[in-house]
Amino acid sequence: MAAVARRGTRLPAPVWDSLLPALLLVNVLITHAPPEPPVAVALTAALVLPLPWRRRAPRAVFAAVAAAAFVQWLVGVQLPADVALLVALFTVAAHSGRRDTLLAGAVVQGGVLLACLRWAPEGAFLPPFVAVTATVVAAAVLGVNVRTTRAYLAAVEERAERLEREQEQQACLAAAEERTRITREMHDIVTHNLSVMVALTDAALYAQHRSPGRATAAMLQISETGRQALTDMRRSLGVLRSGEPDAERHPLPGIAQLEALTDQMCAAGLPTRLEVRGSHEHVPATARLTVYRLVQEALTNTLKHAPPGTAAEVRVHCSTRDVTVDVTDNGPCPPPPAAAPPAAAPPGHGLPGMRERAAAYSGELRAGPLPGGGWGVSTRLLLDGAGAASA
Questions:
Q1: Which positions fall inside the Signal transduction histidine kinase subgroup 3 dimerisation and phosphoacceptor domain (predicted)?
Q2: How high is the pLDDT of residue 127?
């Protein structure tokens, strides 16, 4: 807006370009008396009338002005309009390349030499030659500076626009990544807890007449699982709000919470054994969350798809460089293909979501049937670049 206001206060370019020729014509009419005015006016017009088009065709205008100046030298008339040659040289330097500037400067300097040889007082050639040469050099240098400054400002503006586009792209990528992370978290939380609640509900219905005590315990476990699901959802969504107290009271789950997870799976009807080797204190929080979600998803798939009587085993090995995760079950057959999402399902669910989590730590997830029966999921998370990608 400020630039528009500044442009509004300046004269239009055609008016400004025509102002100098008009002033020079008025000057020659005032300062020259008869019989010179017809020749002086004609030469002045030839020198200055091309100048209004100097921005659009700098080389052509310079050629026309130089030709008029040469005719002026042949006729032997000195005019104030000779300044038009400097203006044309400045325009060539400001709007053309180095080669054109050097050529135009050489032409003007040749004219300076001819003019000084003809009109300089006898014995005083050097002072006017040096003075006019300095003026020619100044005009060329000013034009080159204008061209350089214009190119620099254009480069700065282009770079600023490019940086702005890159920032917008980065913001869009960050938003998409955050949406993917939230979708993955919600899938893991909802799928796991609903699967446990469904299994516990079936167990409660089965035992409500034969063993009311066991049915009551299952119902209490269902209630606790629902509360845990709500807590996990609030905790995951709480990081989107600044100053959310619930996220601080309930830190993200990790390797330390795997024991509670396996106990929950046992209560839901999937006997699960947990083995954790090595200290996990040095493991970053995001990597610990990744381990927890991988184990949670693998056990949830086993609970949903494996037949009754199946048992699972979770092995986690922590070292200073990596974390190895293995989840296996002893089912008589591998889980059906429903463990992987259908082609129409959105990305980030089931096995694709597990692979994304593992890939964040340069891990390759392996999932498939075991030689002796059952199903296995294993991966190795590298900690050298821990935190490079959000889990």
A1: 178-243
A2: 87
Length of the chain: 391
Amino acid 13: pLDDT: 64
Tell me, what's the pLDDT at 222? 74
Written as six digits, the tokens of 264 are 């929950």
Calculated CA dihedral for residues 166, 170, 172, 176, nearest 10 degrees: 150
Euclidean distance between CA atoms 224 and 230, whole angstroms: 10
Instruction: Name beta bridge partners: 324.
Output: 317, 380
CATH among 3.40.640.10, 3.40.1080.10, 3.30.565.10, 3.40.190.10 for 255-391: 3.30.565.10
Closest to 97 measured CA to CA, from 58, 63, 134: 58
Contact residues for 85 (Cβ-Cβ < 8 A; gap 6+) = 47, 65, 66, 69, 108, 111
- Give the DSSP letter string of 101-154: HHHHHHHHHHHHHHHHHHHSPTT--HHHHHHHHHHHHHHHHHHHHHHHHHHHHH
- What is the token pair recorded at 232? 């996990």
Structure-token pair, residue 374: 């059952």
Three-class SS state of 326: strand
Average pLDDT, 10 consecutive residues per value, the chain (391 residues): 45 66 66 61 82 86 90 84 86 89 90 86 84 90 91 91 88 76 71 73 72 73 72 64 51 83 84 90 86 87 82 91 91 51 47 83 86 87 62 46
Beta bridge partners of 277: 317
End-to-end alpha carbon distance in the chain: 45
Question: What is the predicted pLDDT for the residue at 16?
Answer: 65
- Give the Cα separation of 237 and 208 in Å (integer): 37
Sheet with 322-329, edge to edge strand ranges = 272-277, 312-318, 322-329, 375-382, 366-369
Half-sphere exposure of residue 129, counting CA atoms within 13 Å on the CB side?
16
SS3 category, 18: helix
pLDDT of residue 390: 44
DSSP collapsed to 3 states, 65-81: HHHHHHHHHHHCCCCHH
Rounded Cα gap, residues 219 and 204, in angstroms: 7
- One-letter amino acid of 14: P
Give me 123's structure tokens: 């014995």
